[in-house]
């Protein structure tokens, strides 16, 4: 490994060649502030907050590659004054309603301002006119809070390759905009929310539905049922100061009961149901050789990405609804009958790690008898806000269990929350159904890990082979889809998740600031917790879930039955690429 020696604030240090000055300084424990820089996403050096002094010049350290013998000063008066000026100029054109901002207390601009000891804004004058876009059911844009750092543009365009937003106009009139200035709802946005996760301020947030849920809970004529996705329970604790990757399943259930929900169900049950339907669908397609590869449909961001960019391959998507939509349909049919409640009086609330689930919940295709399967979707962040609003001491809650009959989910359902989890859960069931004998080992480590594209050939007990691809991040998905179109790749089964690492880093999860994201492997910590959740279960295969068996025996008949298709399957919509 080639190394070089440089001087930082008078101290010599040896670093790897090609390292930026910002990275080198942070490795030495020197906190150089930054706003536009987001490792692996944005390296534009546009905010000028990270300047350092090299000779007579001030240079942005986030894009300055260190060179042999370079002498760098990070804490001179000239440097501090320049940083302060840059931040004050940003503040002069910023909506400083911090008390009512969704990012209050977690805003990187606020943190940098405090670190630089800025107590007043020196610069006053005309402020740019920037609009608010509330058109999307998933994501809100407040341009009055935008600092034009470009991190959202990098996340959307460079990482996800969606390109729904970008810079428009010039100079003082510069804005982040959709193509042709359309609303976000009319753009190619797939609602993944990775722009929210990248934004250092409150310019991008989820479309909040907290008041809608509070109103439903307060309505005496409504029976309000809540369900929670597997990725929520391994991230919710971060909003209450617990370490990244802490499992809080029991505390989460207890908190939901205290919020006033009538039933607390586990979306892991819906995941098990998905495996039964999708696994049967896969075996059917393998037998016929038609519509291969079968592509998973659990991720609504991926589904909308397909509708915009690869409409000719929509036939390859599984017709299965996503787990929480399946569960919503079952709640408003089977469970409603069990409870003796009219379905129209039941309100289903899904707690999801994903902003795209808000868009999904409103899709016309995901309704039955003029009722949406799911009425409201809240993110992990919104649930945390409700718990705090209710004054619940989350950390000290005693663990409680989910309600029956949809309160038992298998370990296979739990791992849906991380990349490779859907494929592994499906393989556990497909292997056993084709062999007719129990599996001794249920872990399929070949589909695990954070490699962007994982390819494997799995041999079934009957001698058949399943060529699999597991993909996370839409940039990786685009590469693979284009390779399929060119005939360079061929698979039988593909699992795709829109967000890097899967649902554990969804757009509705706790926001991690840029500096912390460099210090902690968020994906690895949350994924480890997901697999621990799986290992802690006594039932680890979807088809062994006793409540799944009862559901089919009493109501659905068998996987892919007529009633199952009516309630649990869907179709898709071709959308414009522009």
Automatic annotation (TrEMBL):
Statement: the UniProt record of this protein carries the keyword 4Fe-4S: yes
Cited PROSITE patterns: 2FE2S_FER_2, 4FE4S_FER_1, 4FE4S_FER_2, 4FE4S_HC3
Annotated SMART domains: Fe_hyd_SSU (SM00902), NADH-G_4Fe-4S_3 (SM00929)
Ranges in a coiled coil: none
Pfam families per the UniProt record, alphabetical: Fe_hyd_lg_C, Fe_hyd_SSU, Fer2_4, Fer4_7, NADH-G_4Fe-4S_3
Classification via CDD domains: fer2
NCBIfam families attached to this UniProt entry: FeFe_hydrog_A (TIGR02512), FeFe_hydrog_A6 (NF040763)
Protein name as it appears in the record: Iron hydrogenase small subunit
The organism of origin for this protein: Paenibacillus tianjinensis
């Amino acid at each position: 490994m080639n190394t070089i020696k440089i001087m930082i604030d008078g101290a010599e240090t040896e670093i790897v060649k090609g390292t930026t000055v910002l990275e080198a300084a942070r490795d030495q424990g020197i906190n150089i502030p930054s706003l536009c820089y987001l490792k692996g996403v944005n390296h534009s050096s546009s905010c000028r907050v990270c300047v350092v002094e090299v000779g007579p010049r001030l240079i942005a350290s986030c894009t300055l590659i260190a060179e042999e013998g370079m002498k760098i000063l990070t804490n001179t008066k000239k440097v501090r004054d320049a940083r302060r000026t840059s931040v004050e100029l940003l503040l002069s054109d910023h909506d400083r309603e911090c008390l009512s901002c969704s990012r209050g207390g977690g805003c990187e601009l606020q943190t940098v301002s405090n670190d630089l000891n800025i107590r007043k804004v020196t610069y006053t004058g005309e402020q740019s006119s920037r609009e608010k876009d509330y058109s999307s059911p998933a994501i809100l844009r407040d341009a009055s809070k935008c600092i034009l750092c470009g991190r959202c543009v990098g996340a959307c365009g460079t990482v996800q390759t969606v390109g729904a937003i970008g810079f428009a106009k010039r100079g003082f009139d510069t804005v982040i905009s959709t193509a042709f200035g359309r609303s976000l709802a009319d753009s190619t946005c797939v609602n993944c929310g990775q722009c929210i996760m990248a934004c250092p301020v409150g310019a991008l947030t989820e479309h909040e539905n907290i008041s809608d849920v509070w109103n439903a809970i307060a309505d005496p004529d409504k029976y309000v049922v809540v369900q929670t996705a597997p990725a929520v329970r391994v991230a919710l604790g971060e909003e209450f100061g617990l370490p990244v990757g802490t499992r809080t399943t029991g505390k989460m259930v207890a908190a939901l009961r205290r919020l006033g929900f009538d039933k607390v169900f586990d979306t892991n049950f819906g995941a098990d149901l998905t495996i039964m339907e999708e696994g049967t669908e896969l075996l059917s397609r393998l037998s016929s050789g038609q519509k291969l590869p079968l592509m998973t449909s659990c991720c609504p961001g991926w589904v909308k990405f397909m509708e915009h960019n690869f409409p000719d391959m929509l036939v390859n998507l599984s017709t299965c609804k996503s787990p929480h939509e399946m569960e919503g349909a079952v709640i408003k049919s089977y469970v409603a009958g069990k409870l003796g409640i009219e379905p129209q009086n039941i309100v289903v609330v899904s707690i999801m790690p994903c902003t795209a689930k808000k868009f999904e919940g409103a899709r016309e295709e995901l309704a039955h008898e003029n009722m949406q399967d799911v009425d409201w979707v809240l993110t992990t962040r919104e649930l945390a806000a409700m718990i705090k609003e209710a004054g619940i001491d989350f950390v000290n809650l005693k663990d409680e269990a989910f309600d029956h009959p949809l309160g038992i989910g298998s370990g296979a359902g739990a791992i849906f929350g991380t990349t490779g989890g859907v494929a592994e859960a499906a393989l556990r069931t497909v292997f056993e159904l084709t062999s007719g004998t129990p599996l001794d080992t249920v872990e399929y480590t070949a589909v695990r890990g954070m490699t962007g594209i994982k390819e494997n050939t799995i041999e079934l007990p009957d001698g058949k082979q399943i060529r699999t691809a597991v993909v996370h991040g839409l940039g990786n998905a685009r590469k693979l889809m284009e390779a399929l179109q060119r005939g360079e790749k061929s698979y039988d089964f593909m699992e795709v998740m829109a967000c890097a690492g899967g649902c554990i880093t969804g757009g509705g999860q706790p926001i991690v600031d840029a500096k912390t994201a460099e210090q902690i492997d968020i994906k690895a910590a949350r994924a480890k917790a997901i697999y621990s959740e799986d290992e802690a279960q006594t039932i680890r295969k979807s088809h062994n879930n006793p409540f799944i068996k009862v559901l089919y025996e009493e109501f659905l008949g068998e996987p892919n039955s007529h009633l199952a298709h009516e309630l649990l399957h869907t179709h898709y919509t071709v959308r414009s690429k522009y």
